[in-house]
Write a structure and sequence with these properties.
Elements (H helix, E strand, L loop, with lengths): L5 E5 L3 H12 L3 E5 L68 H14 L6 E2 L2 E10 L2 E8 L4 E6 L1 E4 L6 E2 L13 E4 L13 E5 L3 H10 L5 E5 L8 E2 L6 E4 L2 E4 L4 E4 L4 E3 L2 E4 L3 E2 L5 E2 L5 E2 L5 E2 L14 E3 L8 H16 L8 H17 L14 H11 L7 H13 L7 H8 L8
Parallel strand pairs: 1-2, 1-7, 2-3, 4-19, 7-22, 9-17, 10-11, 10-17, 11-13
Antiparallel strand pairs: 4-5, 5-6, 8-18, 12-13, 14-15, 15-16, 20-21
Helix pairs in contact: 1-4, 4-6
């Protein structure tokens, strides 16, 4: 193994903790920077919301977590484990839930940090404000503590693990600038009460849109879901008197009306944007080597982890979406640690760049929108098995893959009751760890 390095990890959420664990196990000196007062990243529930409900004001006080109070995982417990660390946390009633709540997930992460001696590596209440390369072998991390103290520290490599569920993406709706109603992004949704007796239009077709709609429908006058997906069936939900599914919005009128492609016209009080998030790296200074374009592509990143020009001294863990996230993050962390320890070699800069160009070209040829660059929806198992092979591990458990793809099969046709439907179709889920 190469000599131990002094390494910085940015963030103490899922990615930061697993990365710190793997780097520590390789004998490196690790410092983890976390701006919050506790570990857990997005899994730390905060009832506070931002002053700008859409999250567009750059001067707003930023709330990191996007958790709502009732959130439970949309992946079952066997997919919430790390590679060699099962999810065994029970809820407050002593029940090992098939779909854990956010409290159990946070406890799982705290247990992991305690069990692997990570707590002493973490600097809480310390925000990273600048990461910049000083020479080929040194990066500087500039940070600010709660007391406002600014400090700089040199490192031999940096791993960025700051997550990507904090900076909202807002739908660009025709006529929205003249629409007079209230708008909010789900990043600032916590409980349904503010929507009582309101007519609400929810933009989006993924987990947050559907989960939140089933909460709001209990108190709102009407809830209208709008999705641009061609797989969505336009209909009124039979089990609710006040819930409709529409196609995409075609216009927002000044008088409060919202028109949908399916011909419906609704006078709404609130538009709730459940439209995802932007990658955000405000602290990273690379002279334009790493960019985030308007289509939310972070790049260039070989296999979503290593920028060819700066590898291996700069890397990213946790960038991809739509995957078995905890296992994926754990495998990426193992790969980064193995590369930095000299156990695994990366291809040349030229070969990594060529691989990236080929990947981008294939996306374009297949007609996959650029904003899906980091979605593993279509090739998740190939990607995970490839990363596992890099560090000498076997392919990902077939049962985990089966669960994931069954979820992807069910969701386009029926979000309501999908958890129950999944357990009915795959009853053995409850019996595996």
């Amino acid at each position: 193994m190469a000599r131990p390095l002094k390494l910085a990890v940015i963030g103490a959420g899922v990615a930061g903790l697993t990365t710190a664990c793997e780097l520590k196990s390789e004998g490196h000196q690790v410092v983890v920077y976390e701006k919050a007062d506790q570990i857990g990243g997005m899994w730390v529930y905060n009832p506070e919301v931002e002053t700008d409900p859409l999250g567009l004001d750059p001067g707003r006080k930023i709330v990191h977590s996007s958790l709502y109070h009732s959130l439970k995982t949309n992946l079952p417990r066997p997919l919430m484990r790390f590679w060699d660390y099962p999810f065994t946390v029970k809820n407050k009633d002593g029940v090992l839930m098939d779909f854990p709540g956010h409290e159990e997930v946070l406890q799982f992460l705290n247990n992991f940090a305690e069990d692997f001696g990570l707590v002493e590596l973490i600097r809480l209440n310390t925000e990273v404000v600048r990461v910049e390369q000083e020479n080929d072998d040194q990066w500087v991390v500039e940070s600010r503590s709660n007391g406002g103290l600014i400090s700089e520290e040199p490192f031999e490599a940096v791993v960025v693990c700051n997550g990507h569920n904090t900076q909202p993406r807002v739908a660009e709706l025709p006529g929205i600038n003249n629409w007079k109603g209230k708008q909010i992004h789900c990043h600032n949704y916590r409980v349904p009460e503010p929507f009582r007796d309101q007519v609400v239009v929810i933009i989006g077709g993924a987990a947050s849109a559907n989960d939140i709609s089933l909460e709001i429908v209990e108190v709102a006058k009407e809830v209208h879901l709008s999705s641009r997906s061609q797989e969505i069936e336009v209909k009124k939900w039979d089990m609710y008197d006040n819930l409709w599914q529409h196609s995409k919005v075609t216009n927002c009128h000044e008088n409060g009306e919202i028109a949908f492609e399916d011909g419906a016209l609704v006078t709404a009080d609130i538009i709730l944007h459940c439209t995802g998030y932007k990658y955000n790296l405000p602290f990273l200074k690379t002279n334009g080597v790493i960019t985030i374009d308007d289509d939310n592509r972070v790049g260039p990143l070989y296999k979503h982890v290593f920028p060819p020009q700066l590898a291996p001294r700069l890397s990213f863990v946790g960038i991809p979406r739509v995957a078995i996230n905890f296992v994926m993050i754990d495998l990426q962390a193992k790969w980064v640690a193995s590369v930095l320890s000299g156990k695994v070699s990366l291809p040349s800069e030229e070969d990594m760049s060529a691989d990236l160009e080929q990947c981008y070209r294939l996306l374009e040829e297949k007609g996959i929108p650029k904003h899906h660059t980091h979605s593993l929806d279509l090739n998740m198992h190939e990607y995970l098995d490839w990363v596992a092979a890099q560090v000498g591990l076997p392919p990902v458990d077939k049962r985990q893959k089966e669960i994931f793809y069954k979820i992807r099969e069910i969701l386009p046709t029926s979000w309501i009751g999908f958890r129950e439907m999944l357990l009915k179709q795959l009853p053995w889920i409850s019996r595996i760890s």
